[in-house]
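INTERNAL AUDIT FORM
Audit reference: QA-55
Scope: verify that the stored structure record matches its stored sequence.
Auditor: D.O.
Record contents follow.
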Amino acid sequence: DERVTARWRNAAEQRREDLQKLMSLQELYQTATDFSLYHIVLVIADTSSSVQEKEVRTSAWISIFFPPAASPYSSSELGHAPAAWQHGLFPLLMLRRCPSFLSRDVCASPTPVLTAVSQDELQQRATRLLSEMATALRDSSAMWDVRCIATLLEYCNCLWFQSVGSAALAGDGAESQASAHASLPTASGEAEEGRPRSTTDPQRAARSWVALTVLLQRPFHFTLGDVVKFYAAMLEQLPSWLKDLQGMLPADPSRRRPALSEDDVYVHLGEVVLAVLDQWVTQVEGGRADERSVEDFANAWPSVEGVLSRLRSRLLEVEGEAVRVVAQRLLKDLRRSEA
């Protein structure tokens, strides 16, 4: 890839020769780390008893999305700036665009240079990565830390929306998001054709892919009720996990990464919670849920009302003109949900 500096290309050529020889897991681990291939680090950590799983797990997941400054595709190491600066936010996903993340085949052609961005790019690349990781890692693997993964993905999701803006949802993007939301997996994890359409607007649907796609599928297999409980806890514990996560992010040499406030992330998660509740209500009212699911929904509703009440109170406290506008719209939708 000509975008990568000669230093990294030469290092890669040398290491490729070394890889033709039999190497230990520790040596492979070091190679993956040196080139910031942290998705491979996770696979090796899952296989090796010599790697400390707990120490590696969180830092590796974060480094997949936010690699160190000294990595081949970071903005400070590229020979030329990305055509679209937003792609530099998540370089392993957005700039290194080989068709597969874990293919044994070498990427035969240079990764394409994209000049435009769309809101569903992060969703497409992240879900592709997770799908491949699900085939490489055991479902019971300690690498599948759902709290770490879900909070990280939602932070990235919020960051991407802040960077791309709502304009990218126009045209084909809006249609693809609405279509994708209409065929989201059910609580069983399988897409269901012909079921009642959700009334969630395309913008909110575009934000809900972590909750309504990733967590419902392998290896997590959440039900919609599980998702609601999980996000209620995520909202309640937001100050703690957000501070921890931001404290682990590497420096941003480009200084393009938006600084997300607690209010930014809270409002984003509020949008997601409403999308999940809308999907759950649609499923129950449409007669597609079994008797047990309907009973679970009825039993959970008092807790849901508590979540909505806390959400409403917190949204009244947000600061900043831009985020306050979104919060006001959310409050209107909340009142409609509670009616």
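Auditor finding: record pair retrieved intact. The chain has a mean pLDDT of 81.
Action required: none
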